[in-house]
Amino acid sequence: MAAKQSPRWTYDAELQASIPDVPELVLFGFDEIKSALPLSYHQHDGYEFVLVERGKASWELDGQVYETKAGDVFHTCPGELHRGGFNVIEPSRFWWFIVTPPHTEDWLRLPLEESENIASALQMLPRVRHIGLQAIQGFRQLGDAINSSSPMRSTAVRQAVMGLLLAIVQANERMFALADDLASQFDLLLRRIEDEPEWRPDVEELAGIVRVSPSHFFRTFQSYTGLPPMSYIERMRIKKACSLLAESSGTITEIANSLGYASSQHFATVFKRIIGMTPVQWRMSR
Question: Are 155 and 195 members of one domain?
Fold first, then answer.
């Protein structure tokens, strides 16, 4: 499948020949973003699901910002206006697909009662749900099915779509129960990182807070967030910088100092590496 090597791969039913007998699949794709890209308000006619594989991404809907990390799925309902947090998609790797609403008989060849059950489950779905990285295999299977020339292509596509929907709407309770204590400690730590962007701990200090060895902490942190600890902290610091640039009248130097940078030049260098433009350029683009 092209998406495994390419930084971007997309199937679009409007631009390409739709999958025979699977009109429910509207869009499917994969993106690997190296630097932040603009993503302004837009909407879809169907349900959109985005699974983050690596990195961290934020999404804005109805004035609320939703954070997603590796293994999280963010979804929007038909007609909902949404955009990337602060109008951008942060550097990350993610998969997505869009399906028509399950409100008709024979939707994905399901009996009406079963499609209604799916519709009810989607209405109750949390805006962000952690389903883990195992679901990536389902996305790859869907991509392989779309690219297939097999006479069973439509059946494989339909099965892959249904598998992904079930993985999203049916929470895997065992997956979360295995590491509840550690996960709660990590959540508290991530909240502190977000609340104290000027904080500059090392891995040993972070590991001590959650009471595990530095090596175990590093591996677990990267698995939990999709990023190494220092990269994650830097991204959160720059996210706070975006908020300050947008919502305050502070100078670049004042903002750099408040975030613990030694100089405005260093701040500008880090900001451009992550966002793709300087703080001044980003502020002017708002």
Answer: no
